[in-house]
Amino acid sequence: KRQLSRRPKACKACVQAVETAEQHVAASREVRATADGTAATAACSTCGQTLPRTAFSRTQVQKTDATRRCLACVASSSADTSATAEGGEFCSSSSSGRRRC
Predict the structure, then answer these.
(1) Mean pLDDT score of the chain, rounded to an integer?
(2) Fewest C-beta in 10 Å: which of 55, 79, 80, 98?
């Protein structure tokens, strides 16, 4: 069976008006955030660069300046960790419960 939409049908002009209003609200939030002193940029603790907030994951943006890392640093860190783990330098548990290094 076909599911009925919970939203009432609207003409293209109405849909476009709603989208425009939502864009204005989002833009005003962004302006308010920078006016309130919340920076639109953040510093990465690993590379030291000041980058736009879009260069950080939501989790990293919420962290303090001392621990915040940009997406590039997080990605390179995880790539380094997996490469090192494949080389056998890290210890891991086997299915028998023994640790091998």
Answers:
(1) 75
(2) 98
